Amino acid sequence: MPESKNQNNGNMKAPGNSKAAEPIKTLNDVRRIIRHLKGYPRNRLLFIVGVNSPLRIGKLLKLKVGNVRNLKVGERFFFDPEDSKKRRYLEINRMILNGLQDYLKDKTLNDDDYLFCGREAKKPLVIQSVGPLIRKWTSSIGLTGNYGSETLRKTFGYIQRTVYGVGLDVLCDRFNHDAPAQTANLLEIDKNNSISIIYNKVG
Asked: What is the count of structural domains for the chain?
């Protein structure tokens, strides 16, 4: 079923922290983390995919190498159907494709390997390990907010809305929410705040 208002709307709290996980709010900070992770291909790819997708981290951790190895920009990998009004999918954009190409230079990765493999061979990262990683990455560039595993998809929505002017109705659909107000709440955005796109270049 879609994410209901009775759920926590993705506002997962870090252990010992009373505040919900925040999005990363500037493209500059996103780019700084990507540069910081250059020597860590798996972590870099996880971050890139996470901030370029509305999917929960648990869904991303189910990906296998063969699911995405041959996808091109604009193509989608559809996850197995579940009790939801809409089938969930990962859509490949240029950032994700570039990250995949860099990561898949490792010729030891087989199609049946998890894309984000954990310490044990043939097993994926566990959700509980992702929050500490994200807090480490954000701390490494001097961010001091409340960050966790939900930070990634919140960052996707926040940047899409505040930088690119994507409508809350569109984001609501991508997040599989009941109403745009729920999406605004998840992203910590005032639903009544209009964003002008009149100065976007045409041509």
From this structure: 1
